[in-house]
Amino acid sequence: MGGAPTIARRFVIPLTCRQIANRLLAVCKHANLRGNLTAHSGRIGLASELIARGASTGSVALAGGYKSGGMVSHYSQQLSVGESMVEKYF
Q: In whole numbers, what is the pLDDT of the chain averaged over residues?
C-alpha cells in the first residue's frame, strides 16, 4: 500500500460539499437555468423524471440512495400525468 501515490491520487483535489454546490450553481448560472436551484436539484429532478417515465418508486429509491420510497413519492407528486420535469420547467 505504501510507496508512490497513484496517478489518480496525485490529480484529485478534495472539495467540500459547499465548494461543489458553489461550482454547480455557477454552471447553472452560466447556462441561464432559472428557478430555485440547489446542489440537490439534480437528485430531485432525476427521481421525478424516472417516475414520470414509469419507473417504480422502489427502484428509483434504490438507484437514488433513498432509504425509502417516501421521498421519491414526495418529489414526484407534483407532476401531472404524462408531464416530465423537463417539460414542467423548460
A: 77
